[in-house]
Design goal:
Strand content: 15-25%
Number of helices: 16
Largest sheet: 6 strands, parallel
Structural class: alpha/beta
Helix content: 25-40%
Radius of gyration: 21 Å
Low-confidence stretches: 360-371
Order of helices and strands: EHHEHHEHEHEHEHEHEHEHEHEHEHHH
Number of domains: 2
CATH topology of the largest domain: Rossmann fold
Mean pLDDT: 88
Number of strands: 12
Strand order of the largest sheet: 2-1-3-4-5-6
Distance between the termini: 32 Å
Length: 371
């Protein structure tokens, strides 16, 4: 396939999710991929209303790219759009003259559930998606094997068109810091972190409830993130350390390495990038019983999967506080588990997708992400 221009067309924050692609493209071409975002009109409206010049500039840049996209030829385009999103109406044409890789973590392709509701979502949009996904020119990279299996149930697409490639973690950045005092000293409180957006789907009600009910002599909480659910946490400001929205990966790693436990009480979690970043830093993960974390965290072996309730999370925290050998064992086994998601391993999987089989064995049909 050669060294074609690689464009990552995503909903937002593409560089955070495609670090392995970034490394591979830089190594091959000497320059990063081109990152652009699909909803430029929405971006522009938000930027103007909130008076955020940087967001307005991004929106204008994306609008220019939309116009340029009519003339794109012979590029590799990694497309990350939420399933059944009407935005595909504007972008599906790019497959005619370019190599398109659709990137997804969605595993409910029957269509009754959608990740984002829209007034424009109707039969015509679903038909457009069906034509797009069944087009032999479109390949699919799924983060989890569940996505590939379910998509094949509902769309006519051969197994050879799919590759399973999880997100990557940079273990040069995300790694254990200095020894944590709580690991060996049962008198030390456990430092517990929530890391992620403060959105309703993330279970911030449970985070707030835990902060309110947990004994501050045994648990010290931290929160890193921002969003509309801040109102649940604001009355508790004196009971936790607030880091705000943290974007820089090295700062995220520093915060993680200064904690003992990560909590993720999401209603739904398609992958849980924070989980593998936490495990790489030697942080024990407690996640709710969602789809994807169960494929990353093995309950009782390298972390914990519990019901999405304050009681279940608090009970597990109390277990770890009472048994520091359990805390130590979960740290060690979580770190061993996450090596599978190392940057070089994931980069090698993307290599065959981006450049083709002439650059070594392609990862097509590489199978599920298994423990």
């Amino acid at each position: 396939m050669g060294s074609k221009q690689v464009i990552v067309l995503h909903e937002w924050n593409g560089p955070a999710y495609f670090q392995a692609i970034d490394l591979e493209v830089r190594a091959r071409t000497g320059a990063p991929p081109l990152y652009r975002e699909v909803w430029c009109i929405r971006q522009l409206a938000i930027g103007l209303v909130r008076r955020q010049p940087a967001l307005v500039f991004r929106a204008l840049r994306n609008m220019v790219f939309f116009l340029q996209s009519f003339f794109l030829r012979d590029c590799v385009i990694v497309l990350g759009i939420a399933p059944f999103d009407p935005a595909l109406l504007f972008w599906s044409r790019i497959r005619r003259s370019n190599s398109v890789v659709y990137h997804t973590s969605w595993s409910k392709w029957e269509g009754s559930e959608v990740p984002k509701r829209s007034l424009l979502l109707g039969g015509w949009a679903r038909r457009r998606w069906k034509r797009f996904l069944e087009d032999p020119r479109v390949r699919v990279v799924s983060i989890l094997s569940d996505s590939r299996v379910d998509m094949r149930k509902h769309y006519s697409k051969p197994e050879s068109a799919f590759t399973t490639i999880p997100h990557a973690v940079d273990m040069e950045v995300f790694r254990p810091g200095a020894p944590r005092p709580a690991v060996d000293n049962p008198e030390e409180p456990l430092r517990v972190l929530y890391l992620g957006r403060l959105n309703p789907v993330k279970g911030i009600d449970v985070v707030a409830d835990l902060i309110a009910k947990a004994d501050p002599r045994r648990f010290r909480f931290g929160v890193a993130g921002d969003g509309p659910e801040w109102f649940r946490l604001e009355p508790l400001k004196g009971r936790f350390e607030y880091f705000g929205m943290v974007a820089a990966k090295r700062e995220v790693a520093r915060i993680l390495a200064d904690h003992d436990v990560l909590i993720l009480p999401s209603y739904s979690e398609l992958f849980g990038l924070a989980l593998i970043e936490a495990m790489a830093c030697g942080v024990v993960c407690i996640a709710s019983d969602g789809l994807s974390p169960k494929s990353l965290v093995l309950n009782g072996e390298n972390g914990f999967i519990v019901k999405r309730s304050t009681e279940a999370f608090l009970e597990t925290l109390e277990r770890l506080h009472a048994d520091r050998s359990l805390l130590r064992r979960m740290r060690e086994q979580g770190f061993a588990r996450v090596k599978e998601f190392g940057m070089e391993s994931i980069r090698s999987k993307w290599r065959g997708v981006l450049w083709g089989p002439e650059d070594g064995k392609p990862p097509a049909g590489s199978g599920p992400v298994t423990p």
